[in-house]
Design brief:
alpha+beta, Phosphatase 2c, domain 1, 12 helices, 20% strand, globular
Length: 335
């Protein structure tokens, strides 16, 4: 098997789960994997109808895909258009207007291909770092791309839920495709609904996922998102696909190259990685000395003290609000 994968859902603080997610291997070749994630809209029950329609339309079409013959991009286009029609049909006779986002990724031996519509996202991570994400089909994404608001301001903008394309409406959906040729060992794609990605910076997700098993990564991200939602969290859905290192090389890279083996996943290590990244990526700030202190930190009590010291040191560079957010996120990771 070329890829490993996992998925998870969480109700959040809503009364109904209107997200749907699925990750499956092809019935004729486990070297092809499809991930599908949908976030339904349309009021009570309408959103659930819409997102389930996406799953019901796409998975059977993946079964008919012929590896080595059919073109993955064309297959994804057919899937999304079929889902669009099925979502529209789901509302007929119910006096509803269900809609849904959709993001799909197909992983094969030579490439990863994806397609999306709406504001459910795909992220690409490599070597524990964020590479890129899909652009939302939303008003706030346009404002962000035009430089009128920051990415942080997207999350609190009053029009953040306003999409200009989705599945199920009268207009054909806007479909944007992307691909990664010759994926490398460790390359990971994450599909996530806005109930997940709202609460993380991309670099943080990359770090949390990179040194965990995929099921553990799903659980860790959902737990943090739930904590950060403070009782007002949306439905959450996540899917992960990774190209693993060949057997015999996993966990041995440090020894092979004379370095230390990676630390096992833990709240302390999560906080360490987060703090080190922030303090070494501030323009005009030399955070190497602090980073060395963080690296040498042996326990949670010492890390708490270091986080407080870093917050004080960064207040003049980042401002009070940003330095407080930095400290709050670091403490959350440590808890």
């Amino acid at each position: 098997m070329i890829y490993e994968y996992a998925s998870a859902e969480n109700l959040g603080d809503r009364k109904e789960q209107q997200d749907r997610v699925a990750v499956v291997a092809h019935p004729a070749s486990e070297n092809f994997v499809l991930a599908v994630l949908a976030d339904g809209m349309g009021g009570h029950t309408g959103g659930a109808l819409a997102s389930q329609a996406v799953i019901d339309a796409t998975l059977p079409l993946f079964d008919t895909f012929v590896p080595g013959k059919d073109v993955p991009k064309n297959c994804l286009r057919t899937m999304i258009m079929a889902a669009h029609e099925k979502v529209a049909a789901a509302g007929q006779g119910y006096q509803r207007d269900p809609r849904s986002t959709a993001v799909l990724a197909m992983a094969g031996p030579e490439r990863l291909v994806w397609a999306h519509c709406g504001d459910s996202r795909l992220y690409l991570f490599r070597d524990g770092k964020f590479v890129k994400r899909t652009d939302d089909h939303s008003l706030v994404e346009i404002l962000f791309q035009q430089g009128k608001i920051t990415e942080a301001e997207m999350l609190t903008h009053p029009e953040r839920s306003r999409l200009f394309s989705s599945l199920g409406g009268d207009e054909p959906p806007t479909i944007v495709f992307g691909s990664l040729e010759d994926p490398e060992a460790g390359d990971t794609v994450m599909l996530g609904s806005d109930g997940l990605w709202t609460y993380f910076e991309p670099f943080e997700m990359a770090q949390l996922i990179s040194y965990r098993t995929l099921p553990d990564a799903c659980d860790r991200l959902i737990a943090l998102a739930r904590n950060r939602a403070s009782g007002n969290g949306d439905n959450i859905s996540i899917a992960l696909i990774r190209k693993p290192a060949p057997q015999g090389k996993r966990g041995l890279l440090g020894a092979l190259f004379g370095g230390k083996a990676p630390a096992p996943p833990s709240p302390l290590e999560d906080a360490r990685r987060y703090v080190q990244h922030v303090i070494t990526h501030i323009e005009g700030f030399d955070g190497e000395f602090l980073s060395e202190q963080v690296e040498a930190c042996a326990d949670a009590e010492e890390m708490v003290s270091l986080i407080g010291g870093c917050q004080t040191a960064l207040a003049g560079r980042m401002g009070k609000d940003k330095s407080e957010l930095f400290a709050r996120r670091a403490y959350e990771l440590l808890a």
